[in-house]
Amino acid sequence: MTVILTILHIAVAIALILIVLLQAGKGAGIGAAFGGSSQTLFGTRGPTSFLGKLTAGAAILFMLTSLMLTYMGSRSSTGSIVPAAPLRPAGQAGAPARPVPLGPAQTPAPGGTVPAPAKPGS
Residue 14: its pLDDT value, please? Predict the structure, then answer.
């Protein structure tokens, strides 16, 4: 169902783009408007044309398919393209332990181990 709806959504989007590009803009006579044309600048131009009605219908269909795809995507658990990280057991450490900072008198031994600090009084 989601695949069919996605194909319909893409087809409506392409149709909406083409329908809008086919229409003559309402401001087509804007250059003549300042020269004293009797046509209103941004007002009504009379009855709505066929392309205007087709644009409104395609826009409504586009919004409905958008809402349905959003609803269907939020309801499905496999809607994400990011795989879920596996959960680790509680006893398993996630990160390595932090290294112990060395004091001024402590230098690492050749094997990479740190000698124990000297006890006071010895």
Answer: 97
